[in-house]
Each structure stands twice: as C-alpha cells, then as structure tokens.
Amino acid sequence: MSTILFASSALPMVVRAIRTRDLASYSPANLVLANVGNAVHCIYVVHLPPGPIWFLHGFYVVTSALMLLWWLRFHNQFHRHRREVREVREVLT
C-alpha cells in the first residue's frame, strides 16, 4: 500500500512536467542529487528479494532520470519562450 501511495504522489509532478514542459520551479541540484542517490540506493535494492521495493525504486529511478533529462532539454526552451513573450509585450505597449 505504501508503494502505491509513494508512487502516486509523484505522478502529478510528472504529468504537469509532460504537459507544460515548465520545469522552472525544479532545482537542478535537487534533480542531480536525486539521481545520484537513486544510483547509490540501487546497490542496496538489487540485494533484496524481488518485491514492492523493486517497483517503487524502479519508479523513482525512471521518474528522477526523466525529470532531469526534461529539465536539461526544456529549461532553455522555456526561458527563450518567456523572453520572446516579454519582448512582444514590450513592443505592443
């Protein structure tokens, strides 16, 4: 039950990131540290018998990696778009 709760708590963040491509509120340091932590935690998890912790950890590994990759990919695009919108507003006023 806790695995389902923890996994479902991260889904809104992932869905919003996919839908808006706005990851400006995410800290790149946090995303990198989460991925490093997941990599280190893999050493522990692979020594456990298969079970819910494997699913939960796999979910976190995939989610954290995707969020970091999306941040790297969309961060510049989002800021470029905001700058263009600001420039258009300045021209119109």
**How many alpha or pi helices?**
3
**Span between N and C termini?**
55 Å
Strand portion: under 5%
Structural class: mainly alpha
Rounded mean pLDDT score: 83
Q: Which second-level CATH architecture applies?
A: Up-down Bundle
C-alpha geometry = elongated
Q: Please give the number of β-strands.
A: 0
Largest sheet: none
CATH topology name: Monooxygenase
Total number of distinct structural domains: 1
Characterize this entry briefly.
With 93 residues, this protein is an all-alpha fold. The chain has a single domain, classed as Monooxygenase, CATH 1.20.1280.
Give a verbal description of the structure.
This protein has one domain: Up-down Bundle (Monooxygenase). 84% of the residues lie in helices and 0% in strands. The chain contains 3 helices and no strands. α1 packs parallel to α3 and α2 runs antiparallel to α3. The longest helix has 41 residues.
Question: How are the secondary structure elements laid out?
Answer:
Blueprint: H1 2-20, H2 28-45, H3 52-92
Keywords:
single chain, 93 residues, mainly alpha, Monooxygenase, 3 helices, 84% helix, 0% strand
